[in-house]
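Workshop exercise sheet. Pairs work together: one partner reads the sequence aloud, the other fills in the structure field after running the prediction. Swap roles for the next sheet.
Pair: D.N. / O.F.
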Amino acid sequence: MLETPGIRGNIYDCKGRELAISIVLPSVYAITGKVKDKEDAAEKLSRELPETRENILAKLNSGKSFVWLGRKIKDEAGRNIKSMKIPGITVERESKRVYPRGRLLAHVLGAVSTDNKGLEGVELSMNDRLSGENGRVEAVKDAKGRIVSSDDIVTKPAKDGDSIYLTIDEMVQYITEKELDRTCQDFKAKGAVAVVMNTATGEILSMAVRPGYDPNDLKSANQASMKNQAVASAYEPGSIFKIVALAAGLSEKVTNESEVIYCENGKWEVYKRNINDHIKYGNLTFRQIIELSSNIGTAKIGQRLGPDRFYAYARSFGFGEKTGVQLAGEVRGTLREPANWSGISSYIVPIGQEIAATPMQLICALNVVANEGKLLKPVLVKSVMDCENKLVQENTSKQVRQVVDPLIAKRMVSVLKGVVEEGTGKEAVVEGYSAAGKTGTAQKFDNATRKYSSDKYVSSFMGFVPADKPKIAILVSIDEPNKVYWGGSVAAPCFSRIAKQTLRYLEKEHYDLVKNN
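Structure field:
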C-alpha cells in the first residue's frame, strides 16, 4: 500500500496574511516489479534526478516492491520524467512547507519534517488539523510481494488539511521582533522573549524569542534555538513577581498603600541570610516599596501573609499550572506547596525567588491587573477553516477565575502607574499614553555553585497601556544583558518602543481594542 498525503493546510495571521503555506512539487517513485528495463530506466532518470545512475539502479534492484527515487523535485524535472512514460515509474504530487516571512514568528509557527509532520510550535500542536487525511494506493500482490495486475490497483483520494488563523498580527510581530533585536544587540544579550497581548480577550498579538532560526532552513538550526522560551522555559522572575505580594497584601488587608514600613537601610538578615535592596532605603510607604522595588519591604509583607495565604494567591494568578495556550511544549514552572517551604521561603518567594515561571504565565498574571482582576486563558489560534473554507472551530476569550476584587485591581493599577511615573520604570514611559507596570532584575541561580550569580541576570519589564483603560499588555525579558542589567534600564525602553509603535499601528488600522484615554 502506498499512502498519498493530503496537502497541509496553511497558517494565516489575524488579517489573513500567509505565514505558512504548502507548495506542490513532483516526487518520483517506482513499483520495481513493473520496471522492465531497470538499467535503461536508471540511465534516463539520472538525467533529471539529483541521484547518480548507480544509486537509482541500486534502489530499483533493492528487492523492495516500492521505492522513492526523488522527493519534491523541480517542476520541470517532474514534467520531463512523466513524458518519458517509463513502465513502473510514477510522478506523484507532494507538498513542501514554505514560510514566506522567513525567521519572523518562527517559534510560534514551528516547522515540519520531510514528511510534513509538525516538529514545533503550532505546526506540532495543531498537526492533526493541518495534516488532513492520507489517501491510499492499494494493489494485489503475489507471494513475493510483486503487483499482480495494474487492473487491481485501488485508490482512495487524500483529503487536504484545515487552515489555521492565528490571533497574531504580522505587523505587531514585526515591531516586536525589530525592537527585541535592537535590545539584544545593544546589550549583547544571550537571549530574549517578548509577548504582546490584547488585555480584553487574552489574544496574543505577537510572541518573539531570541535566538531565532529560519524554519525554511532547518539544517542550519539547532534544537536549542528552536525552543519556544515563552512557554517551554521557566525561570526565577525576580521583582516582576511582586505584583502577587501587592495583590495579596491589599486584598488580605495586612497593609495599605500609605503604611510606612522600615526597610532596614538596605540590608536585613533573616534565617542567617541577607535580603538586600539596591539602595539603602529607610522608611517607605507600601506604595513606594513597589514603585522602588524594595525587596526588604516586600519580604516583610510576605512574612505577614504567611505561606498558605501567599501560595493561594500565587496559584490563583496561574503560577504552578499551564496557561493552556495552544502551543506544544508548555511547562508548569515551579511553585512548591507550603508544606515544602523553608523558614525563609515566606520572605523570598514574594520577591520572585524559589519560584520558576514562564513568560506566558507572567503576562497572563499581569493581565489580571489590567482586566479588573480576571484571569483569562490566552488565545493563539483564533479559528480553523476546512479545505472548503468552512468554519470548523472558533476560539473565544474564556475567563479562568476572578483572582482579586475589581476595586483591588484598580488600586494595583494606581500603584503600578507609580512605578513608571515615580519609580524604577521611568524608562517605560510611552509618549502620548499613560503606562503601568513592574520592573524586574533577577539574579540567575548557578546550579554548579548552588549560589546566585553575581554577574548573570534576567532583566524584565511587564506593563500595560493605556494604564487606566488598558488595551495591550506587554512583557519583555532579556537574558544575560552585558554591562547594564537593571530591568528598568534594559527591558523598560524596549517595552516603551513596542508599545508606542503598536498602539499607533492599531489606531491607524482602526482596531476596536484601541481608544486613547
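Discussion prompt: Residues 1-34+88-144+153-166 form a domain with the Penicillin-binding protein 2a (Domain 2) fold (CATH 3.90.1310.10). What would you look at next?
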